[in-house]
Amino acid sequence: MPLRIDILTTFPEMFSAESPAALGVSIPARARKAGVLEVVATDIRGFSTDKHRKTDDRPFGGGPGMVMMCQPLFDAVKHVEGLDPRPARRVLLTPQGKTLTQQMVEELAKQERLLLIAGHYEGLDERVIEELAPLEVSIGDYVLSGGELAAMVLIDAVTRLLPGALGDAESAHVESFCGEQRLLDHPHYTKPREWMGRQVPDVLLSGDHAKIEAWRQAQRVERTKARRPDLIG
Ligand code: ADE
Fold this sequence. Notes:
With about 230 residues, this protein is an alpha/beta fold. Helices cover about 30% and strands about 20% of the residues. It starts with a strand and ends with a helix. The site of adenine (ADE) has 12 residues, from strand 5. The site of adenine has 12 residues, from strand 5.
C-alpha cells in the first residue's frame, strides 16, 4: 500500500505529477511510478459555499491581509479524509509551527497517510486549527507566501525515506544527518583526480576502507563543529 499524501490547497496545480515541478521529477516522480507514494491535491475552493468560491475574508479586529475561513477548510478535510479508510495524520504548514527536523520526517514517513494543509501566510481562523488539532510544522524561520512550497519540502524529505523510493546507489545517503548521528555530511569527490590545480585527498585513493571511513567521520565532526556547533550542543 503506498503512503497516501493529501494536500489541501487553493493552488492544487502546483502538485501536478505531470508538470516538471518538484513532484514530477527525480525521487518523488520515481516513488510515484514505483507505487510507494500517492499524492492527491484537492482545491479548498471546491468546498466554499460562497458564490464567488471565496475561502478567506478580512480579519476581525482589523489589520492587513486575509484570513482563511473555517468552513471551506473543515469541509475539505472531512471530505478528503473520507476518501480512504486509513486515518490521516493532519499536518498544517505554518511559520508558527515546530521547525521540521529529520527526526520529525522519520516519524511522518512511518504513517500510512498524511493530510497536509497549506495555509496562507496571513493565517487560518484559529478556531479551525483548534478543531482539527493538526501537527503544526514550519520549514524555517522565514515567511513564504503560502504553505505549498513547505508541503513540497516535507513530501520530498519523507519520500526519500520510503522503502523502495531510492535506488541502491542512493540508499547510503539516508545515513547522513539522521537518527542518532546528528552530524553534517563529509565532503565528496569524483573524477578527475585533479581539477583546476585542486587534488582529491590522498586517503580517498588509498583503497584502505577503514582509513577512509575514519577520515570521513573526522570530517563530519570537524564540519559540524565549524558550521553547526548547535547540533553538537
Ligand atoms: N507558510 C509560510 N511560511 C512557512 C514556513 N516557513 N514554513 C511552513 N509553512 C509556511
